[in-house]
Amino acid sequence: MVKLITAIADLRQTLAGARAAGKSIGFVPTMGCLHEGHQSLIRQASLENDLAVVSIFVNPLQFGPEEDYATYPRDLDRDCQLAVAAGAGIVFAPAAAEMYPQAALAYAAVELLGDGLCGKSRPGHFRGVCTVVSKLLHIVQPERAYFGEKDAQQLAIIRRLVLDLNMPVLIVAVPIQREPDGLAMSSRNRYLAADERKRAVVLYRALQEAQRVFAAGERESRMLKERMAAMITAVPGAAIDYIEIAEPQTLQPLENIQDTALLALAVRFGKTRLIDNCLLTEGK
Ligand code: PAF
């Protein structure tokens, strides 16, 4: 049976008991609406730790005024079932008033890394992510915390947050989970109409095409990005937010690829914004 906890004080007390009993804690922060991608994080956390803690919290701080905070899908019963099935021992699902009892005056942020890629069209988003992840890490105090590689920019930013602020936690990256046609799993895929869902596979196909051209020797970012843009703009209803090739840790754009680069993109179908990425690695 999963233990569902909603109060920070209760969670602290339960985890203090687990720690006193010598248990290691693995933590998976989520915004709920769980799918196989989240379950792969939870499975890994429960394999590598004595206790897997999953948080389910739709964090208002990381949504822009025009974004889907109010309509973000929420189904706690279903999420708890999926979390238990993947090995969670505790689900922490606080209300917004528990996490933010008063308007916050303190924030956490990582400079520079959040300026490009998704940060351009989502100002303030990564400050919201860093703030809630910092709060959750302080509350849970896990040995390890698990993040999906689908959110490559978020992962790089969290790694830097933890490094720069000496947070005693190991950040574990978990590979992207894909649907059979290649579309990266995401809670927002459910917003897609049936025809958009079919067309959304173009993100993955464009990444694959870039990997093929890279493997054939192309090292100029502009050429790779143009090839992808041509594929995506040929799909009705697909609007490119960005296609970027960047250094994987600093996220600074690269004109030419030396050995490894992060290739990331965001594409809109109507109001739904999808992201995906891969690494371009010499010799692969
Ligand atoms: O990746 C997410 O779902 C969120 O950004 C996170 C890390 C749970 C913070 O709210």
Keywords:
alpha/beta; Pantoate--beta-alanine Ligase, Chain: A,domain 2; 6-stranded parallel β-sheet; 37% helix; 20% strand; binds pantoate
Quote the distance from N terminus to C terminus: 43 Å
Radius of gyration over alpha carbons? 19 Å
**Which ligands appear in the coordinates?**
pantoate
Unreliable sequence segments: none
Q: Number of DSSP helices?
A: 10
Strand content: 15-25%
Give me the CATH architecture of the largest domain, please. Answer: 3-Layer(aba) Sandwich
Mean pLDDT equals 97
What summary fits the major beta sheet? 6 strands, parallel
- How many domains, as an integer? 2
- Largest sheet strand order: 1-4-3-2-5-6
- Please name the fourth-level CATH homologous superfamily of the largest domain: HUPs
How many β-strands, per DSSP?
9
Helix/strand-derived category reads alpha/beta
The dominant shape is globular
Which percent bin holds the helix content?
A: 25-40%
User: What is the ordering of alpha helices and beta strands?
Assistant: EHEHEHEHHHEHEHHHEEE
* CATH fold title of the largest domain: Rossmann fold
CATH domain class name of the largest domain: Alpha Beta
What does this structure look like?
- It is a single chain.
- This protein is of the alpha/beta class and 284 residues long.
- It folds into 2 domains: 3-174, 3-Layer(aba) Sandwich (Rossmann fold), CATH 3.40.50; 187-278, Pantoate--beta-alanine Ligase, Chain: A,domain 2.
- The chain is 37% helix and 20% strand.
- It is built from 10 helices and 9 strands.
- It has helices at 8-20, 36-48, 76-85, 96-99, 118-121, 125-140, 152-164, 194-199, 202-215, 221-233; strands spanning 3-5, 25-30, 51-56, 90-92, 144-148, 170-174, 238-246, 260-269, 272-281.
- The strands form 2 sheets. Strands 1-4-3-2-5-6 form a 6-stranded parallel beta sheet, with helices on both faces. A 3-stranded antiparallel beta sheet has the order 7-8-9, covered by helices on one side.
- Helix 7 (152-164) links the parallel strand 5 and strand 6 (170-174).
- Helix 9 (202-215) packs antiparallel against helix 10 (221-233).
- The longest helix is centred in the middle third of the chain and has 16 residues, at 125-140.
- The N and C termini lie far apart (43 Å).
- It binds pantoate (PAF).
- Residues 29-31, 59, 62, 129, 132-133, 151, 154 line the site of pantoate.
- Pantoate (PAF) is lined by residues 29-31, 59, 62, 129, 132-133, 151, 154.
